[in-house]
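Shift notes (night). Ran SDR family oxidoreductase while the centrifuge was going.
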Amino acid sequence: MSHVVVSGANGFVGRVLCRALLDAGHRVTGLVRRSGGCIDGVTEWVDSSTDYNGITHNWPAGLKADCVVHLAARVHVMHDTATDPDAAFRATNVEGTLRLAVASQQHGVPRFVFVSSIKAVAEGDGGVPLRENAPPRPEDAYGRSKRAAEDALTRLGDDTGLEIMIVRPPLVYGPQVRANFLRLMDAVWRGVPLPLGGADARRSMVYVGNLADALVHCATDPRAARQCFHVADNDAPTVAELVRALGRHLGKPARLLPVPAAWLRMAGRLTGRSAQVDRLIGSLQVDTSHIRDVLGWQPPFSTDEGLAATADWYRSTH
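Came back to this:
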């Protein structure tokens, strides 16, 4: 049995990860900014400082952990209002991450799992599913901050011996999902016609239960030491296939208009939303062979099972 500290334990992924760790027999301490929101069985550790300033001195007396899984982050947003987005993302996702990792090492934690993002590598696959050693081409402040954090952590691990693991998920979905995925479900639920019938590029995603399972392996399996893993579902549906599947599970007919992808890209250029359109209809497939080869990992849930669970949650709230 291991003792795992999870930052962001009361968040979308954190709650599912904590449940998976507890179900596997591990002890869990949740590092959160405010009290409340952690699932039963998790010991709360509240640190309300900005970007973990002073975390080394605020480390709870007697806390001995085998691993820290770092989920908390300044997340990607479509319309950032920060005057300097790169500086804002760097303060939390790079400097804050490094403070927590240094504190972990100084307090005897041997392993640190950093949940990064496929955006640290690229926004599109260029026709070849992205592997862990793909040349980095992050395109926004969020992706650049995640890549910089990966590099800083790798240097820290080399200097101190702290075992750094990096996990790069693509879009994460599941019950309690927010942002663009929730807006897509809203549109399907309301019967909004969507111009995505011709969107045939494939996009890797990961169900939150599959990501949590992979993170449990990374936190506890000795073979994961100092590895970088891409984690995704087995399937990479097209956007049109995704909308149809959501419609089926929501009990609402998907209203897809067969607008050619070239027209959508033109509309994106005319409206200044090319980046948003490319993220929606461009190809982004993730190669997960490395985690399968090293850890023998397989997603415990199919994409259809994940979409069904997500739709069940959505229907229960409407």
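Strands lie at 3-7, 27-32, 43-46, 67-70, 111-115, 163-168, 171-173, 205-207, 228-230. Residues 3-175+205-236 form a domain with the Rossmann fold fold (CATH 3.40.50.720).
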